[in-house]
Here is the input.
Amino acid sequence: MTLDERVGRSFELLREPVYRYLVATFGRPADAEDITQEAFLQLYRVLRGGGDVENSRAWVFRVAHNLAINRMTHERFLQPLEAAAWDDLCARREDAGPDPEQRAIENERWAEFRDDVGRLSPQQRQCLLLRVEGFRYREIAEILGVSISTVKEFLRRGIGKLTRRPDADA
Amino acid sequence: MRMRRLFRLGWLRLQGEPWHPTDEEVLDTLDGEAKERDAGRVRAHLEACWACRARAQRVQEAITRFAEFAGQSLAGRIPPAPQGWGTFRAKLRRVIEGDQPSEAPAEDAGRGGRRAVGVALTLAGLALAAPLALHLWTPTVSAAQLLERARAADARISARPGVVLRRVVRLVSRRRPDGAPRPHGRVEVWHSVARGIKARRYYDENDRLVAGEWRRATGSRTVYRSGESPEAEPRAGLTARDVWLWDATAEDFTRLVGDVSGARVSEDAATYQVSYLARVGLGAGLVEARLTIGKPDLHVAGQTLVIREPDGLVEYTLTEAGFEARPAERVAASVFEPDPVFVPAVRPMIEPPVPRLASRRPAAVDPVALAALEIEAVSQLHRAGVDPPADATLTATAEGRVIATVAAADEVRKDLLAQALAPLAELPKVGLQLTVRPREAADVTVADPANGPATAPAHLLIERHLERNASRSADPAAIDRTARLYARWAVEQSAVRLRSAEALRHVADRWPLATLAQLELETLAKWQSIVRDHVRAIERDSEVLRQQLEPMLATDEVDAERLEEVAPIQDVAAVPGAVRQLVDGLAAQHALVREAFEPAPEPRELSSNQRAALLRSLRQLEKRTRSFRGPWWLGR
Here is the structure.
């Protein structure tokens, strides 16, 4: 398999999770698509230049995350996802079931959960989304450019908010 | 972390209290991140303790719900990629056919200075490149990429061993829109990486040497002008008087322009042109800039700068008339020495000794003794409230004397300085020259806050803050005016620190560590005291600024963990690096403050991202200043 075929294959496999992560974190689908593609172009350039990419999945997430942050910092095309947009993203949910009473209870619980999700800080949200993608703490730390203990703390606080712990913000 | 855990366990046992895992330990165990022994202990405890098991159950439920939420609800709401990924193949093809491989793996790029700056710049360049390439311009290279590659090409040529570069640039001005071209002579630049020096001479149209600049790799710099005292001031913004001081290179172009994301690239068969148009009211006199880069080797062939002068726009064109790389042994050493026309008896002292020339000098000057003398002089100047490089210049003579040239703003101030600096003048081997030079206008120019429709991006934020804190309903006009004054104060307060930062950097960089290491402890302690004084001044002014801005910038998006840990300074060797980080951080913060609090030509509001960045910067800077507080080791 040639290098461009390898990168093309990785792109097919990983583009959706990377894109989902970027939209959920920064919004702006068009920018997210550009950045996703740019991250894979970077992968190609690095591999062609003889670079060693051990874990291409975490690598692409990290580059995409950094590209988004840099674009946000330098060009201000991209902002962290606004609270309203995040709420809008979170709003829809499949119906809970045919039983009206059960549906009402479930919907209420879901509304509470949605409120809790809305209280997550962007960093907590990023850590949780990356954890859902199956990344280990070490990989999340590399992607976000923070220490493992910081990742742990963001996750602990994030989970704390989702379990409605009053000291989660402490 | 492990030690803390063991300590807690031991403490609880001593107290006879039962142990319960923390939330973190529970989460680590559930996530498979705990060490097997710790995980075993937590699991055993969960089997025995109902309360902890319920807690773990809640954590597990939260994880399950979030995973469900992210996997179904969230994913379902995210729209498909707008272009359907259709453009990726074409982009990849362009990269395969035409692009160069990255010089550094982008995976190493990081933020906040945690990783190598060069690599970060590469990634930043690539990040800047992406939107431009996608949104503004379809060819294969963006302004940021192009400038970065041209800079790298320059660096590669300069770094060739045993080579000295000589470049000649012709300077021509033309008044816009239809003035006739007026020649201004030529600039000749000699650059030796091995010597760590760049010597620049400016000859007027009659080929008379009228000015020169000697810049060293350490960042120190001395400017000579015919008939004037030498100056060691940092290069200021672009002015008509100083056009000759700017190189027609990608590096200087980037410095002039600042944010290159607004630059455009066009091309013809042989060259690329990178064009930048300043936003109205910004750019410290620079209105337009254009850099011409040759296609085959990315060598810069010329630069055009349009500067706003009091009576209109003037276009300066710098065209390369000669460029050569000469073998170092065929270049006379004198090209790197300031010409006698500038300094009949004095030469700048910062230059490192050149072994090959040492034997030609009448008597070798002991660099340690010279440094001790200079530190004593700087210490005396500092006590009188005069700090190089802004207020004074130090030069050393070939005989090992130090001449302190101090510029006073007027005659009255000159007399006062003469009294204050009497102890300095009495030091053996130290000479004092007092001159009068009116201060140039401050770098920060802020429009009269009471006038004009323009307001700062932070204006609304300040107004809301003022309204919240008003004891009674305040007049909107009064609040508006106060908000404008407040914004101007913020910029001025931020700028106050730049002078201390400049002096701090000067003191930290002027003497090599090897020289400092050989100084007497008493002298070294004086040097330490000056460094600490400047840091304290920055800390005080920064604290005032943070205390004022924090309540209005308050945002929950700044987690303390995002701040970088700053290790306390342990010894002298750590000081130059810490100073560089502090001063660079301060400069970046000042740019953020200006962006937020200076009136913007187009109305816009400060984004939450900008607020968070500024707040983080304010807190981070204070962390850095605090790292200087501890007792550093001055001994050998």
